[in-house]
TrEMBL record:
Alphabetized SMART domains for the sequence: AAA
NCBIfam families xrefs: oligo_HPY
PANTHER family: D,D-DIPEPTIDE TRANSPORT ATP-BINDING PROTEIN DDPF-RELATED, TRANSPORT ATP-BINDING PROTEIN
GO CC term (a single one): plasma membrane
Keyword Oxidoreductase: no
Entry superkingdom: Bacteria
Name recorded for this polypeptide: Oligopeptide transport system ATP-binding protein
Domain ABC transporter, chain residue ranges per copy: 7-257
The entry's keywords: ATP-binding, Nucleotide-binding, Transport
Residues passing through the membrane, by range: none
Organism: Aquabacter spiritensis
Amino acid sequence: MSALLEVRDLKVHFPVGGGLFGKPAGVVHAVDGVSLTLARNEILAVVGESGCGKSTLARAVLGLTAPTAGDVLLDGESVLGLSDVALRRYRRAVQMVFQDPFESLNPRKTVFATLAQPLRIHGIVPMADLRTEAARLLEAVGLAPGAPYLDRYPHQFSGGQRQRICIARSIAVRPRVIVADEAVSALDISIRAQILALMKTLQGEMGLSYVFITHDLGVVRSLCDRVCVMYLGQIVEEGPTERIFAQPRHPYTAALVEACPLPDPRRARAKAAPPLSGDIPSPLKPPPGCRFHTRCPVARPVCATEPPPERRFAGGQVARCHFAEEAATWPFGRLGAAA
Ligand code: SF4
Ligand code: MG
């Protein structure tokens, strides 16, 4: 499968102020050498705790933040240094859905004005058809019949309905990729499932691919084909969802899996879980060696000095841990067998 979207060794470093005589106090390594690929029709999860660099990665992929190094490619073509026209094409192809549907909708704009703007900018339909197309978009996201909603304002909708409107806006330009940054995190559990089901339906109908950024492994398991696990600006493990859940090969992934509620309460945990203790270290000064060593329950001396190489396993699972081969012996991290 050829990659639709590819991120190559991407780095986003920010100097931060506060040093003496106006000098930067340091450099935040928000994204520090991330590579990933998204195939056509794939739903790829990027998971990790808040502060691990997921949102910065998303912004860089969308061209909203300039990377310090590395590249982003769509259909094999680099999007860095594109002309304005080409960049506009790219921005049409790659759309974003944000976490907070209230903040990302202009409260002074009607739903029609919100949806008409991208339709007009990208010339999707003739001006005379804007209302019909906007109503059709609302119906596509489950707000039917669409026409009566068009003249309402965001505050007249529930959180779930607002997120449907944001999704309608993102699909208005018929994109190929949607980057969803915590798109369901602000919603109630029952609404969350409905929005995920909608996104899955749209994927099939429109041939979309998603980069699904989340801290919620429940979402990953129910929706995503493949997972990249991020820790302190780097991807520490990636692979197909079922493999990552069945046998995580990085202790951090294992801790996340362990903390994730079981899909079936009749299943028991195989072993007791160690809590993931301590905070994520500052990206101003990432720990040497393995970045996870300050929190890793199975760290050994080598971990504090040697950065772990990538270890490859069957099915395309890759882990950056010196001891990934020993994962089956770790006293945590696997979903229990059926009782
Ligand atoms: Fe833990 Fe060492 Fe593996 Fe890092 S390399 S995850 S510290 S065991
Ligand atoms: Mg974030």
